[in-house]
Every structure is written in structure tokens, then in C-alpha cells.
Amino acid sequence: MKKEAVVFWNGRTLAADHYATSLRHHFGDGAVHRLQKEIGFVGKRLLRLPSTERSAFFDPWFTEENARHLRSVARSVRGMTSDAPRIATAPRIVFLHGVMPRSGTNYLQSLLELHPDVAVNPYGIRELPFLNTVEDARTYEGRFLRLYRRNRESFSDLETFCYMVNGFLRRIEAEFPAGKTVVIKSPHTRMMRYFPYLFPAERCLIVLRDGCRAVQSTIDTWPLRFLGRTFADVCREWSFGTEAALEAQSRMSADTCRLVRFEDAVAAPDGTARDLMRFLELDEGRYPFERIGDLPILGSSRASRSNGEVSWTPVRKPEGFDPSKRPIQWSRKRRTVFDAVAGDMQKKAGYAS
Asked: So what's the pLDDT on residue 198?
């Protein structure tokens, strides 16, 4: 390489390093990491490479020490004593997660909502992806602490986020009656490792679904487009989301976290409803099992289409409707991609290859 070119590229490198140093000074390391990630994301989209990253599901900055501190803060905000798992006079709060959108959280929520003691969508909020925003929360926290840098000595990582999350839950506890079970839905399992620390009194339901059908339903609902997600991206999202779900279950006790297979819920809704009643300590005698068959379809990638797009308006269930047995017709290339990206997780989750 000619001397002039070397000088030119060295100058470009020094300029980039200086810019990154300035960013760190003004915004902190988290903002620089986020900027680099965004640049890499755009580059991968342009090259049609997978852009779904594992770090979006498993926080690389997670530490057990800080997580335990967050749990202590959460319990303090909620007014919990050291020997009480929850406030006796408060409603029970349950989080319903799916491994990815199109996993069946709408159906599970509909089953739960039939019970007269269950309230869903508090304050009209249909989805509340708290854990999905951990990275953004850290960016905000960096900006907040930058205004007075000595506060960094008093706040731990994600502590301001912990105050926000548990402040919202404290409002539910103050405004809903003690006999209610409030269900909060999020069709994601990103950052589930934080669940038992940020939500020390809550129970967790996670919906699993066969990877092939979850991926197909996703691309039926949101067709793949240029500069959008690739087929491999969707496969990776299912794989990482399922891995996060299984790991979350391993970190929590059986009376705190329950995995529900969408296929089992569709095949045996009565049995699934009874199991959910026991898990959530709801009175099974008050559940209208006779109404399960009349539940409408909400957001089906096939049965809920209007003007070529999926609608979330409830529609009557067609005769023989069974999304858990919908055939998958993939090209050899797509099958190869799925097997390479998600085949191992498909087996770990208990589904046939």
C-alpha cells in the first residue's frame, strides 16, 4: 500500500477513535456499544445477513450481585417484608410471556380471561414488554446519571429501571382488589434472566410453540421484505427466545414459573385451564368451562385476515380450525436454514425435527 494511502487510513482510524472517545465521555460506554451495534445491524441488513443477536435475549452485562440488589430494591418499593413473598391484601400479578410473537399468548390470555377473578390488559395496556427494553433503559440511565456524575456512586446498573417497573406494579396493587389476578402479557422472552429479580412477587407463564409453525406464522403475518428481517433472523428469534424461556424456568421454582405448550392448550383446553387454575390458585368452581369452545380467534395469521393483513379483531372460529397442526411447506433451502439455526433448540424444547 502506498504511503499516502497508509496516512489516509491511519487518519481515518484516529478520527474514528477520537469520535468514539468523545461519545464515551458524553454518553458513557453503553451508548458507544449501542451505536456500534446499530451500525453493525444496518450493515447486516444491507448484506442480507442475520441481524438477530443473542445479546438481545441474554444481557452480557448481567451479574448475580447486581441482580440481587435489584430484587432488594424491588421488594422495598413494593413494601414487602423479608419473610413475606407478597402483600396479602394485594392482587396477584401474573406475567404471560411467549417465546416470540405468534406463540399463542393471545389464546392463553383468552382462556384465563374467562375466569371472573382474572383481569387482563390493566389500564387498557394490551402488551407490556418491560424486559424487552432493558438495553434502552440502560441508555436512559446513562443519560440521567450524566447530568450529575457523582450519582453513579449511588445507583447500581438498571436501578432506575427497577424503580419504574415496580412503581407501575405498586399502582396495580393499590388500585385492584385483593381477590383479583391481574395478567400482563408480553409475547417475548428477551432478558428473562432478570424476571425473578425485577418481579420478586410475580408468577410467570411462558408459552412454547413448535419452532417451524411459530416461524411460518410470523412470516405469514409480517412478510419478509428487503432490508427487513431474513428468514434466518426469524429462526434465530425463535431459537433464542426458547432458550431464554427454558433457562428462566431453570432459575425459578415450580410454583413461580410454568411452561405451557401451545399445542397442548389447543388440543386439551379444559385440562390446560384446570392446570392454570391450580397454578394461579384460582377457584376452579367459578370457571365457565362450557364457554371455552366459543372463544373467538384473535390475530390468526390465516383466519384473521382482512384486506390482505392480519387483523386483531376477534372472529368466530371456523370449523376444524387447529393452528397447531397446520402443514408447513418449505423449500429445501428454508428447511436447511431452520435446521442449522434452530434444529438443536427444536429438539431441546421437545419438538420433532
From this structure: 97
* Number of separate helices (H) and strands (E) present in the chain: 12, 7
| Residues contacting 319, CB < 8 A, separation 6+ | none
Q: What is the pLDDT of residue 325?
A: 77
Residues linked to residue 184 through DSSP beta bridges, in sequence order: 95
Domain 54-348 belongs to what architecture? Answer: 3-Layer(aba) Sandwich (3.40)
Domain ranges within the chain, ordered by starting residue:
54-348
Percent helix, strand, coil in the chain, to 5, is 55, 10, 35
Contact 184, 98 (CB under 8 A): no
Tell me if 57 sits within 8 A of 146, measured CB to CB: no
Largest CA distance in the chain: 84
* Beta strands 305-306; 309-310: pairing state: antiparallel
Cell numbers describing residue 132:
424487552
Residue 137's pLDDT is 96
What is the CB-side half-sphere exposure of residue 145 using CA atoms within 13 A? 25
Q: Which residue, among 211, 189, 240, has the nearest Cα to 338 in the 3D structure?
A: 211
| Stretch (H or E) spanning 133 | none
Instruction: Kindly give, in sequence order, each residue whose CB lies less than 8 Å from that of residue 191, ignoring residues fewer than 6 positions away.
Output: 57, 58, 59, 131, 132, 134, 244
d(C-alpha 256, C-alpha 5), whole Å: 61
Please report the pLDDT score of residue 81 as a whole number. Answer: 72
Question: Using CA atoms, how far apart are residues 175 and 97, in angstroms rounded to an integer?
Answer: 23
pTM > 0.85: no
For residue 57, give the H/E element and its range. none
